[in-house]
């Protein structure tokens, strides 16, 4: 399995085999890749009760000490941790953060207007500030030391998760060696300390703001103050991984979706954008009369379709799927899978299969203008599948709706003719130390003088340039 862009290889294998499932033995572990939506539905969705654990990973056990929800086995601990997060992320709770994304997106539009050549940094700031604000009640500059440490921790997590990175992931029986011979442990323990300290940074800030009397009441103030019913979740380090893990899970993924929108706008400026603008102009006015808001949700169905299409077009959070593990023996259409088999959605292969999606390399939101339009998870696997599907999808949909509609309404995006975008190979997870490099080259320009006036009138006042704006009160719905 290549370490660089494995999804290209697993798609190639799926295409050449032409089968709906594909078996791979990675070391001592059985892997099954699901290559069609039919088998994903049949196994990951319909049999979710037994397809929802996670395989053993060194990152899960040592670097995260079982605290990272996304890597936890399916069981009581996962249920309790997920519940703590769901209270924040689901239904009406998710909608209480709409004023925050409104505020952050206004700042983002103003920054894009003033310094469009740094567009990707403004996107990083938007997602960082929104997520930190949601969890800790303070705004974020996007490259403060606190956020940088958290990004590094995420980088450590993602890089060490790559299949083939650690022998013990492929041969979990190596864990039977005496601890002193487990060569991965000293490194893993160091990375645990790094991650814990990175997550603790925002907790310490909250404490110091509380002492100064300027900490707004928010998810974290309640979460650290009030004991939960679960012994797992009450553990202080577990709590650090809940709050840090939320920022980790929410900021990078949403940033990638916004970058993909920019890439799609730059590479195909004439077709779907005209349609989106027709819809936006009919709601907000042809001459930049007002910004789209959450009140326009029902009137902008095409924006929903665009959000889904960015998830399908270039799956970025999990191009080879986020691996699930089977908890008991199973049989499907004559094939037997033993408990412990790692089962994953061959996401890149499915998304770009012409049998699944007509003309799959074309960015075409129209493919989602159907009866399932308003079901954010239907028709693609951008949020995963089954009981392990993304816990933050409502928050993500809200952010995408607002930023997508405002970006398309206010800005034109073009490719740099001397450096065209290779959308197939867009690097969403940059190499270490390159987090603040542009993922690709694009030219962003305000759509008209009227849209410029609109941004100056409605966004400028929200601009802040503080590193971590601790004393910036945010109105809550
Ligand atoms: C558009 C943005 C996002 C995308 C594409 C995305 C995608 C995903 C995917 C693919 C998974 C793994 C699913 C699986 O194992 O089958 C996941 C899990 C998760 N996501 Fe998201 N996500 C996004 C935004 C968010 C946000 C905003 C939050 C919270 C603030 C969040 C929180 C989580 C959590 C907590 C999990 C772990 C769920 C579990 O293991 O039970 N995500 N996400």
Which properties best describe this structure?
477 residues, alpha+beta, four-stranded mixed β-sheet, two-stranded antiparallel ribbon, binds protoporphyrin IX containing FE
Can you tell me about this structure?
- The protein is α+β, with helices and mostly antiparallel strands and 477 residues long.
- Helix content is 49%, strand content 7%.
- The chain contains 18 helices and eight strands.
- Strand 4 and strand 5 form a beta hairpin.
- The longest helix has 32 residues.
- Bound molecules: protoporphyrin IX containing FE.
Parts with pLDDT < 50 across at least 5 consecutive residues = 470-477
CATH homologous superfamily caption: Cytochrome P450
Give the overall silhouette: globular
CATH architecture group name: Orthogonal Bundle
Whole-angstrom Rg: 22 Å
Write a concise synopsis of the structure shown.
This protein has 477 residues and is an alpha+beta fold. 49% of the residues lie in helices and 7% in strands. β4 (330-332) and β5 form a beta hairpin.
Q: What is the topology?
A:
Layout: H1 6-17, E1 21-26, E2 29-34, H2 37-45, H3 58-63, H4 76-89, H5 91-95, H6 98-114, H7 119-136, H8 145-161, H9 167-170, H10 185-212, H11 219-225, H12 231-234, H13 236-267, H14 272-284, H15 301-313, E3 324-325, E4 330-332, E5 335-337, E6 342-345, H16 347-351, H17 393-410, E7 411-415, E8 442-446, H18 449-458
Helix pairs in contact: 6-7, 6-17, 6-18, 7-13, 8-10, 10-13, 13-15, 13-17, 15-17
Bound molecules: protoporphyrin IX containing FE (HEM).
């Amino acid at each position: 399995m290549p370490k660089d862009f494995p999804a290209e290889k697993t798609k190639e294998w799926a295409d050449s085999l032409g089968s709906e499932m594909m078996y791979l033995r990675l070391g001592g572990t059985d892997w099954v890749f699901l290559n069609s939506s039919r088998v994903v539905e049949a196994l990951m969705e319909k049999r979710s009760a037994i397809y929802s654990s996670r395989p053993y990973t060194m990152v899960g056990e040592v670097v995260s000490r079982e605290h990272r929800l996304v890597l936890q086995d399916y069981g009581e601990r996962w249920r309790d941790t997920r519940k703590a997060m769901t209270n924040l992320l689901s239904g009406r709770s998710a909608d209480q953060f709409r004023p925050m994304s409104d505020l952050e997106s206004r700042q983002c539009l103003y920054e894009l207007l003033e310094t469009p050549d740094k567009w990707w940094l403004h996107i990083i700031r938007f997602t960082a500030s929104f997520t930190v604000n949601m969890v800790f009640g303070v705004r974020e500059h996007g490259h403060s030391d606190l956020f940088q440490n958290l990004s590094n921790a995420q980088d450590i997590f993602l890089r060490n998760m790559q299949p083939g990175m650690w022998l013990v992931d492929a041969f979990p029986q190596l864990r039977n060696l005496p601890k002193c011979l487990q060569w991965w442990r000293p490194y893993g323990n160091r990375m645990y300390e790094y991650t814990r300290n990175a997550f603790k940074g925002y907790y310490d800030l909250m404490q110091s703001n509380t002492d100064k009397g300027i900490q707004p009441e928010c998810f974290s103030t309640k979460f650290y103050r009030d004991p939960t019913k679960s012994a797992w979740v009450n553990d202080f380090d577990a709590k650090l991984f809940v709050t840090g893990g939320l920022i980790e899970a929410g900021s990078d993924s949403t940033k990638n979706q916004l970058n993909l929108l920019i890439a799609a706008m730059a590479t195909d400026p004439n077709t779907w954008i005209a349609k989106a603008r027709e819809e936006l102009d009919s709601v907000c006015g042809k001459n930049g009369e007002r910004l789209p808001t959450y009140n326009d949700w029902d009137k902008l169905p095409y924006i929903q379709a665009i959000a889904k299409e960015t998830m399908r077009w270039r799956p970025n959070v999990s191009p080879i799927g986020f691996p699930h593990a089977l908890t008991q023996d199973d049989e499907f259409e004559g094939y037997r899978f033993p408990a412990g088999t790692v089962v994953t959605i061959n996401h890149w292969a499915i998304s770009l299969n012409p049998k699944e999606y007509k003309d799959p390399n074309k960015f075409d939101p129209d493919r989602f203008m159907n009866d399932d339009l308003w079901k954010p998870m239907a028709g693609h696997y951008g949020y995963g599948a089954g009981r392990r599907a993304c816990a933050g999808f409502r928050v993500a949909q809200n952010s995408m709706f607002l930023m997508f509609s405002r970006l398309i309404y206010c800005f034109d995006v073009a490719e740099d003719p001397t450096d065209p975008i290779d959308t197939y190979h867009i690097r969403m997870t940059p190499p270490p130390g390159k987090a603040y490099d542009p993922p690709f080259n694009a030219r962003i320009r305000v759509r008209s003088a009227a849209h410029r006036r609109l941004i100056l009138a409605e966004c400028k006042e929200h601009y802040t340039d503080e590193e971590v704006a601790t004393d910036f009160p945010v109105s809550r719905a």
